[in-house]
Amino acid sequence: MHRSDVLIVGAGPTGLVLALWLVAQGVRPRIIDLNRQPATTSRALAVQARTLELYQQLDLTGHVLRHGHTVAAINLWVKGAPVAHLPLTRIGEGLTPYGFLQIFPQDEHERFLIERLRAEGISVERGVELRGFIDQGDQVQVQLLHPDGHLESAETLYLAGCDGARSTVRHGLGSGFPGGTYQQVFYVADVQGQGPTFNGELHVDLDEADFLAVFPLAGNGRARLIGTVRDERAARAESLRLEDISRRAIDHLKVQVDQLNWFSTYRVHHRVTEQFRVGRTFLLGDAAHVHSPAGGQGMNTGIGDAINLAWKLASVITGRADETLLDSYEPERIGFARQLVATTDRVFTFATAQGPVADLLRTRLAPLLIPRALALGAVREWLFRTVSQLTLNYRHSALSDGAAGHVHGGDRLPWVNAGGRDNFTALQTLEWQVHVYGKAGKDLQAVCATEGLRLHVFDWHPEHGEAGLARHALYLVRPDGYVALATGDHPAPALSDYLARSPRRPTP
User: Fold this and answer.
1) CB count, 10 Å around CB of 452?
2) FAD-binding domain: from which residue to which, for each copy (predicted)?
3) Which of 6-10, 192-196, 347-351, 410-414 has the lowest mean pLDDT?
4) Which domain range does residue 431 map to?
5) Is the pTM of this model over 0.85?
6) Which of 182, 227, 370, 508 is surrounded by the fewest CB atoms within 10 Å?
7) What angle do CA 128, 286, 293 make, to 5 degrees?
């Protein structure tokens, strides 16, 4: 009988990232997918700054930057003319090494992750269907149907459902999926074309016509059209073609399609499952939460789920942590998912609402107020931090404690590149570590040595204070780059106390 440490169901970005991060931490997962071939079309495009930061841990970021497209600006259109130009190239400057919006289509993204996983000696088992599973307390027994009709019984320590919105794993758990479905039907078209909207920037039509956004892709004249259909045509969504789509929004944005590479329609839901974990089974990505594409959050949130869970599973499986560490996965991720669904729902509702008042807000007030608001540094920084997921934090987690400067336990470690040292370079080891910006006392050095914690001491620079860090304070950083403990008072005993009551055990 085949036995694995972690069986991952679903080989989209979430499942692939989970597998890669497990491998990097000494765990060999098994990954299956019902589809016989990798996806050749996709809806997800944006790779947010926080994802690029995390990808830096496994040296994935460079490929995404080289083969993707950096969006220079967003343009808002009304009645066939651009009315607002919002530069993006420096919107997150000083906050992250990746202060911009990066486009890298999901199908290309998946192929890259599959190649990296294969280089680690792990291949996706294609055409394999999960037919059932039973949590036996100390392991999970699964039934897998192979393409040749063979039904395999296998065992795994943990089961990870990364199998999308119609998740077999979620159905098997009986976990509810409350929420709703938007009335509009979305369409996606990958095109080769020309016109003013094929200039490498993002363009959005705000008219009362069907919603339409033109996303730039790498290469000359390539773009992704994402729009909605909301009249009687929505009833026959599955049979729609590009020729059936209203020309109003397309004409308003002066889009000339020379070649259609592919076209698809789909409905969008806004739902969050009731449970992210039941015993030895976990839900991640679209299996746990789905929402509108507003803000390009979906794929990035699934990747965040995967990295959050991966280091915890790896710690438990390799004996570096108590199993109670896994209790933190659901509370850390489910709150963000609920907040995200509510936020994207409000944005999407505003962008697609009908009626004279909604039309006035979108076409008159929004183009006037948005550029003025973004001219304010504080507003621009808040918007970037929110969309890029830099503000995502685990302050209310049982793993988070203390505060020093403006940084609380549970916050993302602020990025600083000062004095020739980038503090994120240290995070590539995927381990618990201690950061001190200033000086570390001998008592703290002794605790770190005893507990098997690598200590990184950075010479103090003004940039550290500007980022919110406190001089000489202690920051205990988790393997995913979030601060577990922050304290400026008696750092050595505070660290010892935290470790004594945390599920993390010292590295032998």
Assistant:
1) 13
2) 4-343
3) 347-351
4) 401-501
5) yes
6) 508
7) 135
- Note whether 168 and 291 are same-domain residues: yes
325 pLDDT tier (thresholds 50, 70, 90): very high
Question: d(Cα 506, Cα 452) in Å, to the nearest integer?
Answer: 6
Tell me the C-alpha distance between 109 and 302, whole Å: 14
What is the CATH classification number for the domain harbouring 310? 3.50.50.60
Residues 192 and 286 in one domain: no
Orientation angle between helical segments 13-24 and 106-119, nearest 10 degrees: 30
Contact indicator for 405, 465 with CB cutoff of 8 Å: yes
State residue 187 phi and psi, 5-degree precision. Answer: -130, 150
Cα atoms found within 13 Å of the Cα of residue 33, Cβ hemisphere only:
20
**Burial level of 134, CB count in 10 A (0-12/13-18/19+)?**
exposed
Q: What is the pLDDT of residue 506?
A: 44
In 3-state terms, what secondary structure has residue 282?
strand
Burial class (CB in 10 A: 0-12, 13-18, 19+), 196: middle
Per-residue confidence band for 60, with pLDDT thresholds at 50, 70 and 90: very high
Assess whether 157 and 186 both reside in one domain: no
Q: How far is residue 359's CA from residue 365's CA, in Å, rounded to a whole number?
A: 9
135: Cβ contacts below 8 Å, ≥ 6 apart: 278, 279, 280, 281
As given in the structure block, the two tokens for residue 470 are 């406190």
Q: Quick one: pLDDT at residue 234?
A: 63
Asked if residues 21 and 5 have their Cβ atoms less than 8 Å apart, the reply is no
Other CB atoms within 10 A of residue 181 CB: 11
The CATH number linked to 237 is 3.30.9.10
Instruction: In whole angstroms, give the CA distance from residue 310 to residue 326.
Output: 10
Q: 230 and 352 in contact (C-beta within 8 Å)?
A: yes
Cα–Cα distance, 250 to 242 (Å, whole number): 11
